[in-house]
Amino acid sequence: MLGKLIIAGLVLLITGARAGAQMPPRSSELAAYTGLHKSAASGNVDEIRRLVASNANPNARDAAGRTPLHVAAFESRYDALRALVAGGGDINALENDRYDVITIAAVKDDVRMVKLAIELGGNPRAITSRYDGTALIAAAHLGHDGVVKALIQAGAPLDHVNNLGWTALIEAVVLGDGGERHVATARALVAAGADKTIGDRSGITPLQHAEKRRYHAMVAVLE
Questions:
Q1: What count of other Cβ atoms lies within 10 Å of the Cβ of residue 205?
Q2: I want to staple 175 with a disulfide (CB 3.0 to 4.6 A). Which of 30, 86, 141, 145 is the partner?
Q3: Run of H or E including 174
Q4: pLDDT given at position 22
Q5: Which residues of 170-183 are buried (b: 16+ CB within 10 A; e: fewer)?
Q6: Distances (CA, A) of 187 to 119, 182, 191
């Protein structure tokens, strides 16, 4: 019983923490932006090119450590992302909470941005976030199955263990709701060869977690 309470408490703690970990620019920040951050937020490609040609720094940081590329990702400005990378922006830069463009897009469930970032040199294997995780783990946690599939195709590490002791497959169960998208996420991971036998720090496997939660569809995938 104590073990179950500890796990339940940890899940609530991590879910709450993650909800606040990734910080898109607030409306007040967007309104105060100038230069490339402003152009990235609005998707003004011509202005981005003009500013870069005038030696504006494409890797400048705001107070949260966001570069214009991070802002473009948060605002789903695809052409701006291309223009910034062409102007020398670092697609793999991490902001203060250690998110890169790919992980921002993964959390946002923006498959198009994930694929574009990878096309432009983003690293799907990068270790990101305060949890020493990956974009794949973040997407699996949220049940963003389309993003999961795109990351798998790009070679994201299937069995990376974050500093909570969890893989993407474990997070799809432990932090998932057992619904259709989390089941599809688990199915994609298993089909790609994710190791179903890797347990958490207590040795509890994804299947055992699913059984405890009575996630019957998830159990069928994991058996």
A1: 18
A2: 141
A3: helix 168-174
A4: 83
A5: bbbbbbbebeebbb
A6: 25, 9, 6
Please count the other Cβ atoms lying within 10 Å of the Cβ belonging to residue 8. 11
Contact, 141 vs 175, CB < 8 A? yes
Structurally, at CATH architecture level, domain 124-223 sits in Alpha Horseshoe (1.25)
Tokens of 96: 């203060």
Please state the separation of Cα 39 from the chain's center in Å: 24
pLDDT at 21: 66
The span from the CA of 66 to the CA of 98, in Å, is 10
Q: What is the domain partition of the chain in residue ranges?
A: 124-223
For residues 158 and 151, the answer to whether their CB atoms sit within 8 Å is no
Residues whose CB is less than 8 angstroms from the CB of residue 141 and which lie 6 or more positions away in sequence, other chains included: 18, 168, 171, 172, 175, 176
Specify whether the CB–CB gap between 156 and 136 falls below 8 A. Answer: yes
Confidence at residue 156, expressed as pLDDT on a 0 to 100 scale:
98
Phi then psi for 199, rounded to 5 degrees? -95, 180
**Residue type (1 letter), 88:** G
* Closest listed residue to residue 4, CA positions, set 222, 208, 215, 186: 208
pLDDT along the chain (223 residues), means of 10: 45 44 91 98 98 98 97 98 98 97 98 98 97 98 98 98 98 97 98 98 98 98 97
